[in-house]
Design goal:
The chain is α/β, with parallel strands linked by helices. It contains 15 helices and twelve strands. The strands form two sheets. A ten-stranded mixed sheet has the order 9-8-7-6-5-4-3-10-11-12. Strands 1-2 form a two-stranded antiparallel sheet. Strand 1 and strand 2 form a beta hairpin. Helix 3 runs parallel beside helix 4, helix 4 crosses helix 6 and helix 7 runs parallel beside helix 8. The longest helix has 17 residues.
């Protein structure tokens, strides 16, 4: 890239993020209720079980679906219908590393040339489990840590496991270095809360100390009435004080100084992610129902990974059943068409009118 006649080298990971932004974007003239093209990404909820009690997660406060791991049969049947899918994300509302079949699932995907990633809380990232992820060919491992110290971690994530996770991540990075392995690409994630924003600078320094060179701010998605720390008063979107904006600016400066890539969820810059992009119909910016499918551990098709966090009950935004229908029947079925039609209108589906893309980080 050239600025003012000088060549500026773009960080390799930044190039990947530019590609990811294009994955989220689609030209306006392609937005039809019927999609001729297949989705480019699948979110497969390998499990809805979890070993933490995060105060920002709906599963802490209610049962979303009966506890289950996605069966091998359902997993393979979905992938076999889309063997050339570009990207598969192996998480939903649970902790993927609780699933014994996870390395086998990753291998199955990598044999088909698919880019594979998932978020983990890091509690089960032992040497054995970490080596299995490396051997399976995982492309990207996102560790949701949410704090730079134990007391704040326990406030957000419900259990005192901060030191274990930090040790696990450090050992995993050391194992990668000793074996000269670059994949999976590891990143640390912090949920954007007023209660934790002051941790951000120390969080970036912690990542650098561990050898993790990517840090992300995660959107806070919350119900209008709030639950735990997932509540309107904790969100940063469009309501940041000067002090909070200065915290973000200092964190960005620290990241640049240390060579840590600092971004926000949705492949946006941190500052951009807390500003409105469009005042009228802000939900119309979303392209997920035209680019991806989300399947729960029980086979329920949802519009995206944010929907479970945006309103109570799955029934109003269930778009199909992968145990009873083919993926293509779901993708252009009546429910999907109606969902897309509503998203293009001034009357969006309820799950979208209160989406994290609209008013949270």
């Amino acid at each position: 890239m050239s600025i003012g006649g000088n060549e500026i080298e773009i960080h390799p990971v930044a190039k990947d993020l530019q590609k990811m932004r294009r994955y989220f974007e689609k030209p306006e003239d392609q937005l039809s209720v019927i999609m001729e093209a297949d989705p480019v990404c699948l979110y497969l909820e390998t499990t809805n079980r979890c070993n933490l009690l995060c105060t920002t997660c709906p599963r802490t406060f209610e049962e979303l679906e009966p506890e289950a791991d996605m069966s091998w049969g359902l997993f393979t049947s979905i992938i076999d219908q889309y063997p050339k899918i570009a990207r598969v994300v192996l998480h939903g509302v649970g902790e993927p590393m609780l699933v014994k079949e996870l390395p086998r699932m990753i291998r199955y995907l990598k044999e088909r040339g698919i880019y594979v990633l998932f978020n983990t809380n890091g509690t089960l990232l032992t040497k054995k489990n970490g080596q299995e992820l490396i051997d399976a060919g995982l492309d990207e491992l996102r560790v949701s840590l949410d704090a730079a110290e134990s007391s704040v971690f326990q406030m957000v994530r419900g259990k005192d496991m901060f030191d274990r996770i930090v040790t696990n991540v450090g050992n995993f990075i050391a194992m990668q270095h000793s074996s000269h392995t670059q994949l999976p690409r590891v990143s640390l994630w912090l949920t954007g809360l007023r209660e934790t924003l002051a941790q951000l600078e120390a969080f970036i320094r912690l990542a650098h100390r561990l050898g993790v060179m990517e840090v992300y701010l995660q959107r806070l998605v919350y119900l209008p009435e709030g639950q735990g720390l997932a509540r309107p008063e904790s969100a940063l979107f469009e309501h940041t004080s000067q002090q909070e904006e200065e915290i973000l600016q200092r964190a960005e400066a620290v990241a640049r100084e240390l060579g840590v890539l600092f971004n926000a969820s949705g492949a946006t810059e941190p500052g951009t992610s807390i500003k409105k992009q469009k005042d009228d119909n802000p939900w119309s910016l979303c392209r997920r129902p035209w680019s991806l499918m989300y399947i729960t551990a029980n086979g329920r098709a949802l519009p995206c990974c944010i929907a479970p966090f945006s309103m109570r009950g799955y029934d109003s935004f269930t778009l199909g059943d992968a145990t009873q229908q083919s993926m293509r029947e779901i993708w252009n079925g009546e429910r999907y068409q109606e969902f897309r039609r509503a998203l293009l209108s001034p009357q969006p589906p309820p799950a979208c009118s209160s989406c994290g893309m609209r008013w949270s980080l």
